[in-house]
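Hey team,

Filing this mostly as a record. A colleague (T.K.) asked me to run one chain through the structure pipeline before their review meeting, and I want the input and output archived in the tracker in case anyone asks later how it was produced. No errors, nothing strange. Just documentation.

Input sequence:
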Amino acid sequence: MKFTEEKLEKAFTQLLGQEGFPHHLGISFLVSPKMIFFFPN
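Output structure:
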């Protein structure tokens, strides 16, 4: 069985979920503008 980056990411997110850190897509977050930080280079 070939282990790809996709399979690695899926296994990692499943492991995080089992440890109590659920996976969320970035577009599913509701962020207040007060919570956005910008750091100059």
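Quick notes for T.K.: Residues 11 and 32 are 31 Å apart (CA to CA). The helical segments are 5-18.
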